[in-house]
Amino acid sequence: MNRIITISREFGSGGREFGRRLSENLGCAYYDQEIVQEIAKRTELSEKYVQQVIGHRPISSFPIHIGRSFRMMPDPHLEQSCSIYREQCSILREMAAKSDCVIVGRCADYILQEENPFRIFVYADMPSKMRRCREKGYEKEDLTDRELERRINAVNRSRAEYYEYCTGQKWGDHIHYDLCINTTQGTIKGIAAVVSRLFLPQPGTENE
Amino acid sequence: MNRIITISREFGSGGREFGRRLSENLGCAYYDQEIVQEIAKRTELSEKYVQQVIGHRPISSFPIHIGRSFRMMPDPHLEQSCSIYREQCSILREMAAKSDCVIVGRCADYILQEENPFRIFVYADMPSKMRRCREKGYEKEDLTDRELERRINAVNRSRAEYYEYCTGQKWGDHIHYDLCINTTQGTIKGIAAVVSRLFLPQPGTENE
């Protein structure tokens, strides 16, 4: 079985950079935006549209994780959400079957649970998330601190809602992860270097 | 300022062993039962009684963290709880002032917040906690699995209630910790070895 590491992350926490560095340190594949690109290709929808669907829970619909045992009124948006989710599941399973990898977001921790992934949740306090957003230029507009905080909270609320819609689990609840890392203190590079060691052989500790 | 590492831990998660190994790896002081012993000495109460008070939220009383701005009816049990908590705060501050240390439990993460401690929460899934309890002989009685599970849940509920009573914060909510570690997979020794590296100099990562 391949070693699968999934990263769930708060917007602004540096989780994407953490995942990328982890994959570099471990010399394994890294999947992030590639998942959206592949879904767009297979569904013949635009990347932007797929990204928007993946980032938001459909309005007034049954959770995907419960399944559907009865016919509902046809709802084209909902049907499209479901078909995107089906592709997302197929693509993630293909990626996991191919080689060791780090996968960022997209409910991979839940979708790939049978592969026994190592599930990491990355978060930070608000001032740190705001600082990182400004440094990385995620927000090109000239937002006030208050506006930026609202934007960060809105993105994270959407992620939480989409995750809960797909999995029935609470996003960020430690019980669903193997490691939860607060990146407020320390550098992403330094934290990634330490966490990489969890996956590399350490002399003298394997059989004790 | 000394390096203070606090460990909050679910009963059965191996958090105590983790803390001890971390202190050994870092060559720093380790405080756990010593805190109860010192409180007992200073308050002239028995260790067993102090342990019981620290492990349980007083019934029908105001949270300690809110403080008391008005006179209430005298309540000897509550007064004793408060005097134990005051000693707990003094002792923890003295320990933190003395040298680098690892402190297990006793709301040290909250009480020492001005020292900017590195706050770790250690947890595990239920089968793993049950297995560890049986291995360590925490439960000498011949409990059924169901009884042991109830016992573990009861201890952890008490810890959560006492923590919330003292701090006003939710025990185990990742936002109050720097690192949350699920010990279900891997050995405590192996995890402690990796986490120790967060506190040891790593060549090439300090200034990046």
Key terms for this structure?
homodimer, Rossmann fold, 5-stranded parallel beta sheet, 8 helices
- The CA-CA distance between the termini of chain A, in Å, is 23 Å
> What is the number of helical segments of chain A per DSSP (H or I, 4+ residues)?
8
How large, in whole angstroms, is the Cα Rg of chain A? 18 Å
Shape of chain A: globular
**What's the rounded overall pLDDT mean of chain A?**
86
Helical amount among residues of chain A, as a percent range?
A: 40-55%
* Tally of DSSP β-strands of chain A: 5
- Spell out the CATH superfamily of chain A: P-loop containing nucleotide triphosphate hydrolases
Oligomer: homodimer
SS class of chain A: alpha/beta
- CATH third-level topology of chain A: Rossmann fold
Largest sheet of chain A: 5 strands, parallel
Report the top-level CATH class of chain A.
Answer: Alpha Beta
Number of domains of chain A: 1
H-E string of chain A: EHEHHHEHEHHEH
Most extensive chain contact? A-B, 29 and 29 residues
**Fraction in beta strands of chain A:** 5-15%
CATH architecture of chain A: 3-Layer(aba) Sandwich
Biggest β-sheet: strands ordered side by side in the sheet of chain A: 2-3-1-4-5
Instruction: Give unreliable regions of chain A as ranges.
Output: none
